[in-house]
Amino acid sequence: MKQDDRNRRQEEQTSPAGMSDVETALKELRNKIDAVDEAVVELLAERQKVVDRVVALKKAHNLPVRHPAREEDLISKRRQQGAASELDPDFIEDIYRTIIRRSRVEQASSMAGKSVRPGAKVLIVGGEGRMGRYFRRCFVDADYEVRSLDRNDWWDVDRLCREIDLAILSVPIEQTEAIAVRLGPHLPAEAVLSDMTSLKAMPLAAMMTAHSGPVVGLHPLFGPTTSTLDKQIIVAAPGRRSSDCQWLLDQFISWGAIVMTADAREHDEIMDIVQALRHFATFAFGRFLSQKQIRLSRSLEFSSPIYRLELGMVGRLFAQDPSLYCEIILASSQRRALLKDYVASMNENLEMIEKGDKTRFQEEFMKIADWFGAFSDQAMRESTYLINKLIERF
Amino acid sequence: MKQDDRNRRQEEQTSPAGMSDVETALKELRNKIDAVDEAVVELLAERQKVVDRVVALKKAHNLPVRHPAREEDLISKRRQQGAASELDPDFIEDIYRTIIRRSRVEQASSMAGKSVRPGAKVLIVGGEGRMGRYFRRCFVDADYEVRSLDRNDWWDVDRLCREIDLAILSVPIEQTEAIAVRLGPHLPAEAVLSDMTSLKAMPLAAMMTAHSGPVVGLHPLFGPTTSTLDKQIIVAAPGRRSSDCQWLLDQFISWGAIVMTADAREHDEIMDIVQALRHFATFAFGRFLSQKQIRLSRSLEFSSPIYRLELGMVGRLFAQDPSLYCEIILASSQRRALLKDYVASMNENLEMIEKGDKTRFQEEFMKIADWFGAFSDQAMRESTYLINKLIERF
Which of A190, A223, A214 is nearest to A327 (CA)? Predict the structure, then answer.
């Protein structure tokens, strides 16, 4: 009887009287939507053309690409217009953040050819590595004279160093010190010496000893697969004669990067957590999944977007270069000590797990939640936004 | 001298000859962009009105909200038009995924009042809890007669159960069995008995014993803060007389949810990983951060979007209900055994860390990467997309 009800209702859905009228009406409305959408894309193309003219003008007059106040003003105007038209302002903001970023990335890439110090000579040590090649291309595109010194080029080091304005060490952590020492004597006195190592205290000290001219340590917080420097972070640890190193930082800024200045030691402490601990935890989790032979794809079918996102973070690690992560995770004795503490802390949970001690779990949970404080709510907002993006897309 | 160059260049940037002309030209171009943007938002408002008419039509004729083929067709038309207008098709797709999802969510919420079995009587056991209240609202909005049975209402259980078509247990895991037993004798023979527990084998067995009528176990993979059921996953573990339970699943589908059917035991195995292990790992990581008194906000200033995202996942956990996570993590002896294995596996890394054994690290890494296989690349793509969204927004 209930089953009959259901069958009847389904029949009504597939062939009610007048269905062809409904289909016609739907088709007309869909055609209207298509016409609106076509007009929207036309307008976006028109917008692009105007943005191109803005870029040309900025380029000709050395004006910066980014104009945060203008961006926020634009967003807030569109939000207001949306609200007045019964559109959700958050929805409109969402659309416009996408449009603005696109426009900013295109401006930055069009400005990439703009050099802060045109014709300056740049030597990339380790220029055949992945990061080395990445930055070579950036500097070449910006009209620098770029040279590469890799392991087989040391016989030619004097010619390669002649009259250079900048040498960047883009080599594995454990070679940085030795290479700085080896390069130092060949550098012009006024050349800036810099590096791209993910630690800063040791490489900076090595560079300061090896070279008496301007020194600045850099740590780009992105990999060689990054398509644009837009809003990517580079940490700069000042060494010597900062004002003479400033043009290099300005060059990164003009490519769209954000340069954060930090003391080398503070940088290393933070990176112990941000890089070594986080990557190790991810590594160890992935290792356990593989030990247990978890059926990944089946687990994804039965899971919330947040799990998909978390598992994605784990999978992402293993799509990348093992030697890079090895260097980061095992970089220093301080890091290794931190990882040991982490494993020790993990073991402290065993008793609670064995006993299924819910009271203790909740007590611990609330203490930790207190410690996270306001960050938790912010994290909730940001991750919820991203989860919605994930649902939209995949 | 170099410093002078830099000063001169900066001066040119701030007050070159003819700056007012440039400013005027920029202002004109910006006004053009504003005019285009205003027209875009107008079109989006117009689109919204047409979509509203589509919804009204679908509603009147019982047609489904989602039409995946139409969505893909629409996207591909806009991509083509974009490419022809020198716009990046991915950019256009990005914008249109946002527009389409918005439209789908609005349609689903407008259809939420549409009942699969209008006037049916629904009893929510644990109706004062957070999930209980959430589903009460869903059923009330869809014109069901909804009753709530919470801990203080058992004296009235016979009246509350009278002629109900459906009873849903929305109670903590450890009470599910007892409550099923207590409720069973009061249920009409033909009523569907269901639950919302995050385990399925034990609750399903308890419900099957307690009630001789139709039984289906459910596990909604989302929390009570979810604003829309659009594309949210609900796992259904069939118990008895599935066809008589189908209307309940149809109701969730009509609210936009995706119903995945699974054997109760398979569900529980997968959730050991997806929920218990993942949440425990996150808990343990957060615990360590708090033990080490990491300066969260400073670490965020110096970090890549991926770290922000990962730290956000940790913070997110601690913004939520401790008892919920406690129940999930410590739910069964099988889960607790898995967590012990995880801690044991974590300890296996100690020797490698102590020795700084890079060879072993890379060997392990590559073995795990092999095991992840193609999933890693997919994870890389998806997470890169999200990282870009994060950069756009925050």
Answer: A223
